[in-house]
Amino acid sequence: MKFRTVPCLLLAGVLLAGGAHADEAAHITASHGWIRILPGNLPAGAYVTLTNHGDKPAVLQGASSPAYGEVMLHKSSTEGGVSRMSMVKALNVPAHGTVRLAPGGYHLMLMKAGHPIEPGNFVRMTLRFRDGSHLVSNFIARPANAVDAGD
After folding, report:
1. Fold of the CATH domain 23-142
2. For a disulfide at 59, which of 89, 101, 128, 130, Cβ 3.0-4.6 Å?
3. Residue ranges per structural domain of the chain
4. Vertex 97 angle, CA 91 and 98, to 5°
5. Beta strand 58-64 with 122-129: parallel, antiparallel or unpaired?
6. pLDDT digits (tens), the chain, 151 positions
7. Which residues pair with 6 in a beta bridge?
């Protein structure tokens, strides 16, 4: 009898421990998501405000979209009057904090559009976090001259 009880108790403990771990994405809200559409087949930039309502930091590690073949996390910077863009492996969203992906800073680089995206279209994006959790959000496409979500 004891032999059967021990595996059952171990399994119950593992299941309870797994349930106690909260997904990073469960504590994140995405707002003001938008995409700057450039002409032709040029890559687009996606921007969003991420707010962490949790007690622990969350780490954005990437994203994907059915509308684009490739989505990469990038950061723009300027040094000595020269603008640069570099790929970033992860972006921390502090506990009870906000991170803004915006023109001139962190952003998602969208490449290889599967079909033409027009201003006013909504594009579904899946944000991927370090623990494997995901947050799905719709981003509105804006014209090439847009500089912020409220233009």
Report:
1. Immunoglobulin-like (2.60.40)
2. 130
3. 23-142
4. 65
5. antiparallel
6. 454 544 444 444 444 444 445 599 999 999 999 999 998 889 999 999 999 999 999 999 999 999 999 999 999 988 888 889 999 999 999 999 999 999 999 999 999 999 999 999 999 999 999 999 999 999 999 999 988 766 5
7. none
